[in-house]
Specification:
The strands form 4 sheets. The chain has a two-stranded antiparallel sheet with strand order 1-5. The chain has a two-stranded antiparallel sheet with strand order 2-3. It is mostly helical and 518 residues long. Residues 1-36 have low confidence and may be disordered. The protein is built from 19 helices and 8 strands. The longest helix has 25 residues, at 150-174.
Length: 518
């Protein structure tokens, strides 16, 4: 297995991929600019793989030059158009796990839970996801004539998975997005809106339909989807099915989590190694990651944003921690609410990769107040340097085995899976965290489970989704510092459980109806 295919193959090929799809995705009445035809895309297996590279590469790249120039998404600063940067902002800054010092237009509104339909970061993720969906659709159109070829059939299944993943993003954050498919056509065509419950059924059907065409677990190249990735996405969806559709599916969440658990993925021995610059090598736990390379895939989002945005020279000096970047931007940190999830066991729990000088945040714009996160670093597991001291090598895990253990455990606590097995899976994570059996628990509750998800998965872009499922996100009974825009925190209206569709898209597409109260 070429463990570096995402960084030195799939991802790098995307820089010059044959689908030259740089376009303003706000213009959904036309196809992305395309300099290729189905004939030259299909002229060889390698050229088809390069075309697939653009579909994958759009997760880590923002344009065709990098780090800036010829951006994929018009109307937004290219660094802000990155998929991960916007995903992190919308999933983490609105929760107890992250807060930002920067006062960029619309950014403070995310932590204050007071955003509008013109928020640039809301628009950034919305249009980035639609762009990536259109890339997948275009690839599927170009390869349709050779869909029976075994290799192309697998490539098409992977493109369909990536499209399904982006539709999950749209369903989770926006609820009722426009639906773009291969029958949309060209010219002045306005995509129709799909309702959240119907989109859930569509994604579920799509993932089950492609299952047999995807590579077996742990047999595909690193950074490419396999059957386990599809199962992991299904498990995540089923865990939140009651939010999406009104009907719980916890038993299904457990079933698909266990498929992943039994498929050959293993927990990494050291938790911290999962978030270092060499986490693409000998990593048995990550099911699918966004690959980053400090030399070959430069952009101002992604892991470069994640690491640089969480530190600066003063923080590194204060902590005596090498984050692997020269200085840093001093933007993101956590509130005291994240520290509280560890309940005094921080020095024993190996997942406590954070520190602080002033725990409480009196002034949001002061990066020296709050909790500094050192989980993601741009150094290798042995402490040696990464390739670049600004642009980061560390890959970001979209799915890893630990989440599946927690999904099964939650289903068991909710009475929809085997209780003893759920406790066993839960304690496997505790044993790794403590390095021994001291962390094991004899019983677990939903409150304990939510805390464990914070301890295990913080800054992995799941917290907003988790808090909504547990009824905590907008509640006045569960508060964190600066929730709702005040230091002690406050509850907010329930319509903030969904982000609005961007106002300009609603205005231009008569088929779209805005989410309530926006």
């Amino acid at each position: 297995m070429n463990k570096h295919i995402n960084k030195k193959g799939i991802l790098v090929a995307a820089l010059g991929a044959l689908i030259g799809l740089s376009a303003c995705v706000k213009d959904l009445d036309r196809r992305p600019t395309n300099i290729t035809t189905s004939e030259n895309i299909l002229s060889s297996g390698e050229s088809t793989k390069q075309a697939l590279a653009k579909v994958y590469g759009a997760f880590a790249l923002t344009g065709n030059e990098g780090p800036a120039g010829q951006g994929d998404v018009a109307g937004i600063d290219e660094g802000f158009s990155d998929f991960f940067r916007n995903f992190f902002n919308l999933q983490e800054l609105c929760t107890d796990e992250a807060i930002c010092t920067w006062s960029d237009d619309g950014l403070p509104d995310l932590h204050n839970l007071n955003w509008s339909s013109s928020n640039p970061f809301v628009k950034g993720l919305y249009y980035r996801s639609l762009y990536q969906i259109k890339l997948a659709v275009n690839f599927l159109e170009l390869t349709e004539s050779k869909a029976s070829d075994p290799t192309i059939k697998q490539y098409r299944a992977e493109a369909r998975f990536l499209r399904a993943f982006q539709y999950w993003i749209m369903m989770d954050l926006f609820g009722n997005p426009p639906m773009i498919d291969q029958q949309l056509g060209t010219g002045k065509v306005f995509p129709k809106q799909i309702q959240r419950a119907d989109l859930f059924k569509h994604i579920e059907s799509e993932l089950k339909e492609i299952e047999n065409d995807l590579a077996a677990p742990r047999t595909n190249e690193y950074g490419r989807a396999d059957k386990a990735a599809a199962w992991a996405l299904l498990s995540r969806m089923y865990l939140n099915a009651e939010v999406y559709t009104g009907t719980e599916r916890y038993a299904d969440a457990a079933e698909y989590a266990e498929r992943v658990i039994l498929s050959g993925y293993k927990l990494a021995e050291q938790y911290a190694s999962l978030f270092r610059a060499d986490n693409d090598v000998n990593n048995p736990e990550t099911i699918l990651a966004i690959g980053y390379d400090g030399i070959n895939s430069k952009n101002w989002g992604g892991a470069t944003f994640l690491v640089n945005g969480s530190t600066n020279a003063d923080i590194q000096k204060t902590l005596g921690v090498n984050m692997g970047v020269d200085g840093g931007w001093g933007g993101n940190r956590a509130t005291s609410a994240l520290v509280a999830q560890f309940e005094g066991a921080d020095k024993e729990d190996g997942r406590y990769l954070m520190d602080h000088r002033e725990l409480n945040i009196q002034k949001v714009s002061d990066i020296m107040q709050g909790v500094w996160i050192t989980k993601f670093r741009n150094v290798k597991s042995d402490g040696s340097a990464a390739k670049h001291n600004t642009f980061v090598d560390t890959d970001f895990p979209l799915f890893r085995l630990a989440e599946m253990y927690l999904n099964y455990a939650e289903a068991s606590v909710r009475g929809k899976a085997d209780a003893s097995k759920g406790l066993e899976y839960f304690n496997r994570l505790r044993q790794r965290a403590y390095g021994n059996s001291n962390g094991a628990m004899r019983s677990i509750s939903l409150d304990i489970l939510l805390k464990e998800r914070a301890r295990e998965l913080y800054w992995e872009c799941l917290r907003r989704t988790d808090l909504i499922r547990f009824g905590k996100f907008t509640s006045g009974e569960y508060l964190w510092p600066w929730k709702g825009g005040i230091a002690e925190g406050r509850g907010v209206e329930d319509h903030y459980k969904l982000y609005p569709l961007p106002a300009d898209d609603v205005q231009s597409n008569r088929n779209l109806k805005q989410n309530p109260k926006y």
